[in-house]
Design goal:
- The chain is mostly helical.
- The protein has one domain.
- It contains 16 helices and no strands.
- Helix 3 runs antiparallel to helix 4, helix 3 packs parallel to helix 5 and helix 12 packs across helix 15.
- About 7% of the residues have low confidence.
Length: 323
Amino acid sequence: MKKTEKYRFAIIASFIVIAILLRIWLFLADHAPVSDTPNNIASLIAGLFVIPLVYKIAKDSTGNIEAGLFAAALSIAIPLYSWRTVGQFTHTLAIGFFFLTILLFMKLKDIGDWKKIIVVPLIFAFIHVYSLALIPIFGLYFLFSKLEDRKLSKNEIIFAGVSSLFIFLIFLFFTASPAFLALAKQHIDIQYYSIAAENFTLVNAFALAGMIPVYIGFLGAYFGLKKRKKSALLVLSTVCIFFLIMISKISAIMLSLPYFIIGLTIMASFAYEEFKKAIEVSKFKKFNKQISIFVFILIIILGILHWIFTIDPNFLLHFQFLL
């Protein structure tokens, strides 16, 4: 393993360790309406895969390793579903399958044959109803690509078309059958969403997500669009569709929030890439490495503080005895 790859692996591993510690603290500090330890642990493990996925998508989108690591650092404190719902493991696992589908779709040119990866969105369709969101996302991506005069490959069109068709059919014949809905409605009303998820508002969502990934994400969206990169168009399509889902309240806002904020976190990598380019041509060039380390530490600390004060607004009161 090359030295740079070892460093990269170590950094991502440290991000995952921080994420684990945050979620353990959440388990101890936040007494959610539903508590199921095996489900909590499974949800935590599934959620950890989001960090390397964010890194990979951001790195491949920008072509910049450091920008990918920046997005991964932002993703550490993203609120997922740990200890929030009975269906938390399913919700968290679905996020992984969703962004894995996005990553594989981005890599179709390298993969070559769309049939090698079609199984991923199909499994996703059996896991969660949010697989249906892929259909308008692909549609919006095609529209953005046309508006930006970006050529779509044959594999992209076939993969999007076949996966959308099968997702719709799976939902139609398995998930949405009248008998199933009649049987599941009472179970869903009682167990599928927690009290926290049902009573969430858009203002609460942005407060929980934090302004740093939101602001940097929108700035990154601007730079991504400016470069007319197809990867930016795909991730932006994801952000737009889930924002529409949240404002229209098609589903509980809390359930859509992670998809929305992870999408913005990936877009933030474009902003970081531009920031680094600006440093390279400035008088601060000789401090490039130190600035990068400072930015990463600052982002992680702010993310941790936001996480802590969101869960426990009176956190500082626990240290009054030190005064």
